[in-house]
Amino acid sequence: MTVRDKVVRAAVRLFADKGFEATTVREIVEGAGVTKGGLYHYFESKDDLLLEIYTAMLRMQAQRMRTIAESDLPLPERLHAIIADVVTTSIADLDAATVFFQSFPLLEKSKQKQVRAERRRYHERVRDLVAEGQRAGVFRDDVPADLVINYHYGAIHRLHMWYHADGPLSGEQVGEHFANLMLRSLRP
Fold this sequence. Notes:
By secondary structure, the chain is an all-alpha fold.
């Protein structure tokens, strides 16, 4: 694992446990087993480190979503796979998801704008799949595609509030249930 990766992992763990504001740079450095110079070589500030946590998760999930969206699977299967994947990958790195959803308001405003734009592109691509299915008659069209996406992603964005790895369902099972719920809600 690189110094950069160690710093990010330590920050994710600490931010999820203690919160962004309560975590010091010193704690991150100690948790990563690196020097302050090692941290500052990659990140100018704690805020930059928080931004990296956001963008890393968004980049990974967006790439996976694009791969699925552009596949040859039938539209309902693509949408199902995308929803299951975003839930599963969020749960797989629940600490990062926790940081993502709890600490967003603490980001500098210009960085919030950047993250919102990236997240909006992701949601718009998935919304376009829903709208495509509505136009084709595959999905019901009496609920606006934007509302469908906001409703379902609103629930996904709260996984960190209730999901526990030692609970009765695995991340994959939760992903399947979320995807099934979305597809059932779209049946004509």
